[in-house]
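**Fold in tokens:**
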Amino acid sequence: MTDPNLLPLDVSRASFDTLGSIIIALQIGHVLFGLLVYQVHYYFKMYPGDRLWIKIFVSVVMITQLLHNVLWVIASYHYGITDPYTTAALSHAHWSLRLLILVTVRLACPYQNQTRR
């Protein structure tokens, strides 16, 4: 008897196509994160006399972006490796996706504030 949690072949193929695009976007995101690391290093090296609140702001953005990347890796690992073919995995959002919403909002808020001034 087959497991009722297994998806039909056509649905699993569509979910794998979506997972492939997420993996490609994840790799591009890691390259961009590397550029962010370089920019933060350059900022701290070239502007050591800046105000403390600006340095804290830059550090918080860097750490939040790192958390954002880590959560995407965890989510893609969960849906691609741990539970790739089960309907139970697709019917409920993984904890990393729920936390990812909050982290994304945290990343976007400072930039939205700057554009309104």
